[in-house]
Amino acid sequence: MERIPILKLSDFLLVTIQVDMHDRLALTLQEELTAKIVTTKARGVLIDISAMEMVDSFIGRIIGNIAAMSRILDAETVLVGMQPSVAITIVELGMTLPGVRTALNVDKGLKLLRDSLGKDRGEDAYGGLEA
Amino acid sequence: MHVRSRLMLVIENVEDDLLKDWVKEQLAAPMLRRELMSETELRDQSRTFLKLFRGVPSKDGLLSTDGSEWAKVKEFVSDISRSRAKQGFSPSETATFIFSLRLPLFRMLRSELTREPDQLFGELENAAAILDKLGLYSTEVYQKSREEIINRQQQEMLEVSTPVIRLWEGILALPLIGTLDSRRTQIAMEVLLQEIVVTGADVAIIDITGVPMVDTLVAQHLLKTVAATRLMGAECIISGIRPQIAQTMVHLSIDLGKVATKATLADAFLLALRRRSSSTSADDKSSSLFNQNSARGE
Fold this sequence. Notes:
Number of strands of chain A: 5
Oligomer: heterodimer
Radius of gyration of chain B: 33 Å
Shape of chain A: globular
Number of helices of chain A: 5
Strand order of the largest sheet of chain B: 1-2-3-4-5
Order of helices and strands of chain B: HHHHHHHEEHEHEHEHH
Order of helices and strands of chain A: EEHEHEHEHH
Helix content of chain A: 40-55%
């Protein structure tokens, strides 16, 4: 069975969706990701969907759900690299994913996460990363 | 049975007089636009028309202009209508070209056929029917060519109306001009999002100084663009909101939500620069540890 790899990157988890998302895969991802957040004590989740060409309302909702679940588990979710066509589709479907933060690419998403964590934990967060 | 109808024979006999009379009639018409067309041109067109007209091989019934024998006349009429539509003539001015032939032609017929009242009546009927049909045809062609012009202009407007400007590194501006409909918004949105991908901009300024009116539909289109931009990971600033538009928006209870709005593009630009500088100064503190990883992640 296909699985979407979840990589641990310091304090964060990086999920790169490279295949066509179908419904079961999305649900599996939701389960595995929440489990992994708990086991790794991750503070942030980056979901890279730059390779995703299509999205439907179900996948959109799953993404929103993942973000909400992560927040409950004290991890910030950043959705990165959304393609214009996907963005337009999501907006036309009437979903604006209000709770989800977004960034243009993984680089900017990481900055965003580090900034918001830095605010939470003070300057020592940077010290911890740089060590 | 005539091989050629009397009408055509009469026209042929008195062609020069008829032409003179017709041109005089056209020149006398209050609708003639001398600035758009010279007298010689008019005379040439009239002469060609008469020549084609009398050259139509006619059977006994001339009442229909649908047959192939009329093709040349119709082609000429449509050429004239089309060129007049382009020059800016009005539909009635265009149709006058055909309709002004009516009186001179009737006068000629009367003087030529004065001894044969039956024949005269029949030919008058014929001539009236044909001229009516040609006149209508010319209006139709005129209308069609105007529509073509309008369509082309609409297309051109769509093409020129959505330039995305790179104001600064990471700052894009989309000046919207003219009324926003769903098709234009769609194009503007697509162009903006594509440009965000290409340039990797963080901030997009949508300037609506040139939008004459904002109603609920336009506001909804704007909000859609803002939402899509946010989903891509950039943020939007809406600028160029004129006082009247601000008032209308409040009266219509349009809620722009958390979208930053500024009165002028200059203010929006300043805000965008400030946001960028605050985010880059935060970057400087952080390490380059992740930059290497993330560069591959894209």
